[in-house]
């Protein structure tokens, strides 16, 4: 992955120090998703950071599925995560599953029991909550805390064999019920769950908890820098305790950074799953979703996402990033990559009454105004065209320079046309406009006779292909004051999707395939939708509009 993490960040500095001091001669990082949903843009930040550091310091980067919770995990998620990480350019050196370490984890649990550092507890979860105490009050010791080593070994073994029901017993670390750090108050390290696991199937009915499993996973893989988000800061002492007391050979170091939060965006797999399950979106890859697969379908490029992740940087305190910043980076990237074309999204028929009937000429138009090397294409032009409804006004407002009766404009890449007539239906709506053209004014002919104040785009009515255009607004309205404090499902933008049926010039999209990127003049950057496009009809997603007031 070509990352430009040139800007100094505190994690990078730690790594430099560790390499300079000889603490490590090679770093290993990892991205450890739980396969309980699709990845989102927040995960991209972690992938770009971890893989970028490994690449910069010639270390290794692992993809590890943190699959210790059988009830929520699924192979569908495993596959989607692999695809998304690969697509982003997060080239992993090795791929691991935490569930392949269950034997080692179980042995470590036995080791803790033997050292008098773990016990089987029969308190209900409610009782356990009561015993835990609060931030200001110490907890109370469980009555099961002083079971003998033999009894604990026997009970854990029987838990593993399936003799108890879910929730009947747990294994807890025996640390300190009075610790000011609540994570130290005898945290649960194993629980019973009679559920089939996507990888280990029915081999286990007890599963390790995150706080116990994660440090062991990191240590087994020789992870040197275990980068996670800020909410785990208070868990770090426990992380270190597990590594030490489980007598792990490698000692990884946990480093926390601020998670990415964005305006107008929900950033949690649980909430995103709810949007999918309740049919508010058409799947995890709905182009309005902040998932990697959604952004891909929307038309984002991996480069734009990586550039965004590098630009937001790595910090130690939580903040909110303006979602327009992500749009800025895709615009930058597509400026050069997308070829331009003319598409009309809200068509209005324009008839050139003095243009010969039945004749079509091919006009040469450049593919990318910013890049000549992209060449030119031939665009058919004839007597009947479509233009945008908004490019005509029967009664023009002030400073309106586009078409109105008596006014002349340039048709992009073609001729000047002057509006002579307006045709209406029985409801008085404009259905067609009539113009005359001036053959002298052909684009590229060097005509200097007179000037017009506007250029409008068009497509040839006969040759054009019909197409569907899907325009998006943010799915979540969170910047409106009245929405504050509301549940996210109450903040859904009812106008987040607008579907228009229009036309597109034929040549530019002749061999268009899913994911191809276009700049439709004036209308924005678009990509061919991978889900709804058929052999008969191209469906385009608007990636982003052409302009924004947002500045970096
Ligand atoms: P979510 O809350 O969305 O379910 P998670 O943290 O539970 O996310 P994991 O699959 O456990 O999801 O995350 C894998 C990795 O991605 C973790 O190292 C986590 O810290 C990181 N990560 C998750 N969300 C973000 C975010 N918003 N910004 C940066 N990193 C993130
Ligand atoms: Mg999680």
UniProtKB/TrEMBL annotation:
Residues reported to bind ATP: 34-36, 40-46, 229, 259-260, 267-269
GO biological process terms held by the UniProt record: glutaminyl-tRNA aminoacylation; glutamyl-tRNA aminoacylation
Pfam families registered for this protein in UniProt: tRNA-synt_1c, tRNA-synt_1c_C, tRNA-synt_1c_C2
Keyword DNA damage set for record: no
Domain tRNA synthetases class I (E and Q) anti-codon binding: 455-529
SUPFAM superfamilies associated with the record: Nucleotidylyl transferase (SSF52374), Ribosomal protein L25-like (SSF50715)
Location within or outside the cell: Cytoplasm
One GO cellular component term noted in the UniProt record for this chain: cytosol
Domain called Glutamyl/glutaminyl-tRNA synthetase class Ib catalytic: residue spans: 26-335
Reaction(s) this enzyme catalyzes, per UniProt: tRNA(Gln) + L-glutamine + ATP = L-glutaminyl-tRNA(Gln) + AMP + diphosphate
Domain Glutamyl/glutaminyl-tRNA synthetase class Ib anti-codon binding: 341-438
InterPro entries: aa-tRNA-synth_I_CS, Gln-tRNA-synth, Gln/Glu-tRNA_Ligase, Gln_tRNA_ligase_bac, Glu/Gln-tRNA-synth, Glu/Gln-tRNA-synth_Ib_cat-dom, Glu/Gln-tRNA-synth_Ib_codon-bd, Glu_tRNA_lig_a-bdl
Subunit structure: Monomer.
Family: Belongs to the class-I aminoacyl-tRNA synthetase family.
Protein name listed in UniProt: Glutamine--tRNA ligase
Organism ancestry: Bacteria, Bacillati, Bacillota, Clostridia, Eubacteriales
